[in-house]
Structures
1.
Amino acid sequence: NAGVTQTPKFQVLKTGQSMTLQCAQDMNHNSMYWYRQDPGMGLRLIYYSASEGTTDKGEVPNGYNVSRLNKREFSLRLESAAPSQTSVYFCASSKQGRNQPQHFGDGTRLSIL
Amino acid sequence: DQQVKQNSPSLSVQEGRISILNCDYTNSMFDYFLWYKKYPAEGPTFLISISSIKDKNEDGRFTVFLNKSAKHLSLHIVPSQPGDSAVYFCAASAGASSNDYKLSFGAGTTVTVRA
């Protein structure tokens, strides 16, 4: 039972490089989310997709783009990486509707030099 | 400005005793609250939740209490076990849309259970 799978687990980039973080879920969930976790900040929502074909900005969307490729997959792209984007990125999914717990992947640790 | 605050970064408790984790929120529109548990190098996992129409929800060793007037919730773990050593995140949602919900997270509390 894989749940939410994120690739890669680790990545080091140079400032200005581009990168796509991949996320796939096998729970037939409609809603998917991207968060970043920084020390002392908790998790902050970057973008979310309530259902296939829709995406919306979260709390910290600047510098990121997303693609909901199909129901299973939701990718996060950094077009021109900056050191401030060094973080741990988590993808999550949930059933559509209120009060549905989100299920998280194990994260991608991204360092930008 | 963080709308969900966990003011205790860490908590150390002896095995078998009670762990009490606290969380405060500022947004009066929050009406659903969750606790997540996170081990190192893993993603958060859902632990327990409570709706604003209740003041208590219990699931085995875990109980969440909600005090709406004080905008405060707490998680009680009793008895604490070594496997409970983890980071605990408090989260809240305001339910603006019926189709999805966005969570606001606190910064987390690291719990260490001593043998």
Note: Residues 14 and 114 of chain B are 5 Å apart (CA to CA).
2.
Amino acid sequence: QKEVEQNSGPLSVPEGAIASLNCTYSDRVSQSFFWYRQYSGKSPELIMSIYSNGDKEDGRFTAQLNKASQYVSLLIRDSQPSDSATYLCAVNSYYGNNRLAFGKGNQVVVIP
Amino acid sequence: EAGVTQSPTHLIKTRGQQATLRCSPISGHTSVYWYQQALGLGLQFLLWYDEGEERNRGNFPPRFSGRQFPNYSSELNVNALELEDSALYLCASSLGLAGVSGANVLTFGAGSRLTVL
């Protein structure tokens, strides 16, 4: 089993709709969870971090964490064409010696 | 405040040569991480340095090596280059050890694209 899995293929959403991205992880002692956005040809940039179970909202973005199910998700509300990018889920385990493992990413395309 | 800076932006080498990539972290950050992003493979963890020491290493052969200097800058060396080493190499920095607030938040540089012919 991969450390961090993002299995969905490219996601196309109409402008103004909600984009939903999912991520599962294998290390039960993982402590820190992140979503990065990467535009084509650019480096990843942090958009959300979440450390405890539940929801965390930041503007149009909501991260959801369920440690019992080893599942973290990202919702993008009122999707804009500027949200078109690849979204990377990243998970850190304190006992993994501070190594941040990334999923392969989900490409989101917002259609005007 | 300057971000994470990497050089060179692009590097073209031939098989068997050596490549050296450099990274300067954000001021105040002591940890430097190296990741490889090859086409279709996502970000693969290479190396983590903190306070001049190698703290963790990913599943890469020994010809991938590096070091961190007293000013916390770092370099990644790839010896005996192979075609499959062609990738974007990303450096990231963060505050120090795990358990410190913000320690696990990585800020990435723009990357160095290595092409091996």
Note: Chain A touches chain B through 22 residues (CB under 8 Å).
